[in-house]
Design a protein that fits this description.
six-stranded mixed β-sheet; single chain; globular; Rossmann fold; Alpha-Beta Plaits; Serine Threonine Protein Phosphatase 5, Tetratricopeptide repeat; alpha/beta
Length: about 550
């Protein structure tokens, strides 16, 4: 049997193990677009539950532990991988209801409930993912209890089976096999099971890494770590990444239209910075000795007094006179202003690189004093978190599954204040298909993806979330993408330009796109201020 204290420690150990290794999980991402990576999302999800578990004393039941974990995971869930993880533990919690301690059979049955909940929540489950790894682990647990009901046998079987299934994921998903990696979500789950097994088998909790341990793990034959952001000078022809590689190991390099961001390990930080100055102007710099614990640096400064944080979305009671309210998710001042002008009551900051949690979305909903609240996620990786929020809100919530910002804008334009809730829900959902979306960003890593050999920093053009073009010339990329978005019924194209693009650059792109399209199509330019995407282009 397992008691509440053991289960609590096991879950916290699993969370710590994933947190310590989240960078390894992030690195398995095969899609080259910068995004909210799987390891980070899963770690933030389970980490939120671990914080709640740490508040529990030793005299707890497995029911209390499972319920506390499930609530924490649910509210902290970020991204699709985080939501699936939270659903696994939510189902597990239901299986532990009313139990003070649990047998191996109880654990197997409870985890099976979690797997069933996760599969039901995904519209089109894909095998070769975290779903498969969890299902095979649950099936193994169910098989084991037929001849051994011990908790240790069940957890060991689940851990071993999860590892075995993870190794098979490349055979289930061709894109994983081509990239030579296993599924990131499945790997995250294996690390969680590994942390749990450490407690079950040895009574040993895996602890979070200290600052010194993190520094030591980063250390190479190089002494210094240099991170900087530089704005390119007009006419600069320096190939910065190639130049930097002469001075050490370039850990990260991203170049956009206006400048570059890099992270390098080196023994010659002065020469690195001198090289950067031949490229342009340094706008942010950090140089650290990797062999020194940097916590001592803060000791030289007086700790500023922390101001009380203002609640961004204060709770509001439902006003019976307010029929409809709206919550939108987006990033960038310009896009925030657009949604506010269209009538959104509350706007959650987030998007591709930082998926908001279920708790973030719930808070915005609960701050909207309407009987019916429409939520626009505006990103495919946020829809599931929005749906989770809708289930625990104290008012009626309708999630309109917008996958892009232009879809969200189109849905808002379709709203009719005189129409009923069913009519508005139908109209807003139908509006999603009336707009085509294109996005221009950069490759976050070298990749061989979908027939494209991609270099880090190269421009990427995506149509409806799928990569269609790569290249180095912004005019060519934007022109081709806009042409691919329009059809015979298109009457308007809108260009939302991001935080790294000037108004002059955006106007120049408008001229390029107008030259590629029929004169009957109106082309507009709007400041979006969004990160990650240089341009978001809509055609309707």
């Amino acid at each position: 049997m397992i008691n509440g204290k053991q289960l609590r420690d096991a879950f916290i150990s699993g969370a710590n193990n994933l947190s310590n290794r989240k960078a390894e999980v992030d690195a398995l991402n095969v899609f080259p677009v910068p995004d909210g990576d799987t390891g980070t999302n899963m770690s933030m999800t389970i980490g939120n539950g671990a914080k709640e578990l740490e508040k529990l004393g030793d005299d707890v039941t497995v029911e209390q532990v499972a319920k506390t974990a499930a609530n924490g995971f649910l509210r902290g869930a970020r991204g699709n991988s985080g939501v699936i993880l939270s659903l696994l533990f939510r189902g597990f919690s239901k299986g532990m209801k009313g139990k003070e301690t649990a047998s191996g059979a109880d654990v197997a049955a409870a985890f099976t409930l979690g797997v069933e909940a996760a599969y039901k929540a995904v519209m089109k489950p894909t095998e070769g993912t975290i779903l498969t790894v969890s299902r095979c682990a649950a099936e193994k647990a169910t098989e084991i209890v037929k001849y051994d009901d011990s908790v240790i046998a069940v957890f060991y079987g689940m851990y071993l089976q999860s590892r075995k299934t993870l190794e098979q994921t490349p055979e289930m998903l061709p894109i994983l096999k081509k990239s030579g990696v296993v599924d990131a979500g499945g790997q995250g789950l294996v690390y969680i099971f590994e942390g749990i097994w450490s407690v079950i088998s040895e009574g040993k909790m895996i602890m979070p890494k200290t600052a010194e341990e993190i520094a030591a793990s980063k250390q190479t034959e190089y002494t210094y770590c240099v991170e900087a952001v530089a704005k390119r000078s007009e006419g600069s022809s320096v190939e910065l990444e190639k130049a930097l590689s002469a001075y050490g190991e370039v850990v990260e390099y991203t170049e956009g239209t206006v400048g570059a961001k890099f992270h390098i390990h080196t023994n010659e930080p002065g020469k690195v910075l001198t090289e950067v100055l031949s490229y342009g102007v340094l706008t942010a710099t950090k140089v650290e000795n990797m062999g020194i614990a940097h916590t001592s640096l803060e000791a030289d400064f007086e700790e500023p007094k922390e101001e009380p944080k203002e609640e961004k979305f204060p709770y509001a009671e439902v006003d019976p006179s307010v029929e409809y309210g709206f919550v939108s998710v987006c990033a960038g001042k310009g896009l925030t202003d657009v949604f506010a002008d269209l009538g959104c009551d509350n706007i959650v900051s987030g998007g591709q690189t930082m998926n908001p949690s279920t708790e973030d979305i719930l808070a915005a909903v609960q701050a909207t004093p309407a009987k019916n609240v429409f939520v626009l996620p505006n990103n495919k990786n946020i829809i599931m978190a929005a749906q989770q929020a809708s289930e625990i809100a104290d008012r009626n919530v309708i999630v309109v599954p917008s996958r892009t910002v232009p879809q969200g804008i189109s849905a808002m334009l379709a709203y009719d204040s005189e129409a009923g809730i069913e009519e508005n829900t139908e109209a807003m959902n139908e509006a999603l298909s009336s707009v085509a979306t294109g996005q221009v960003t950069f490759a976050a890593r070298d990749s061989d993806f979908d027939g494209h050999k991609i270099k880090e920093g190269e421009l990427l053009a995506m149509k409806e979330g799928k990569m269609v073009y790569t290249g180095k010339d912004m005019d060519t990329i934007c022109g081709r993408l806009a042409k691919a978005l329009v059809n015979k019924d298109t009457s308007m194209v809108t260009i939302y330009y991001g935080e790294d693009i000037s108004e002059e650059q955006a106007e120049a792109i408008r001229e390029v796109i107008e030259g590629k399209l029929s004169s009957s199509i109106e082309v507009n330019v709007i400041y979006g201020g969004q990160p990650v995407y240089y341009y978001i282009i809509s055609a309707e």
